[in-house]
Amino acid sequence: MLCAAHATALCGPSTTFRLNSNCTNYTTVRPHFRFTIRDLLWLTLVVALALGWSLEHRERQHRDKLFGIQKGRLDAIRSVLERNPDVTATLLHSSQGAFDQSK
Q1: H-helix or E-strand containing 77?
Q2: Which helix (H) or strand (E) holds 40?
Q3: Which residues lie closer than 8 Å to 28 by C-beta, 6 or more apart?
């Protein structure tokens, strides 16, 4: 049977002791929240992975939204150019002249 002083020396200062009902033996009462560095590192890893996934998911959604807007604009321009072939020829001719001037 250990006394409280010897039990504290063996179990560490963060352990508290309580006498049993018969007042002869000490029982240890350990703190509920006792984490090791390994536990905290695992928690940090899990939180970092979740945060990284969340940020990447948001960025992808934003990119897809912008892509949809640009695709809609290009489809509108394409439909106008297909309905008006003379505008298409004029645009191609004027842009060709711009390229020729730069040489």
Answers
A1: helix 37-83
A2: helix 37-83
A3: 7, 11, 15, 16, 17
The separation between CA 82 and the C-alpha centre of its own chain, rounded to angstroms, equals 45
Please count the CA atoms within 13 angstroms of the CA of 54 that sit on its side-chain side. 6
In this predicted model, which residue has the larger pLDDT, 98 or 63?
63
pLDDT band at 88 (very low <50, low <70, confident <90, very high): confident
Say if pTM beats, i.e. exceeds, 0.90: no
Q: Which two tokens stand for residue 78?
A: 């394409």
At residue 66 the predicted structure's pLDDT band, cuts being 50, 70 and 90, is very high
Long-range CB contacts (within 8 A, 24+) of 21-26: 25/1, 26/2
Dist CA 71 CA 68 (whole Å): 5
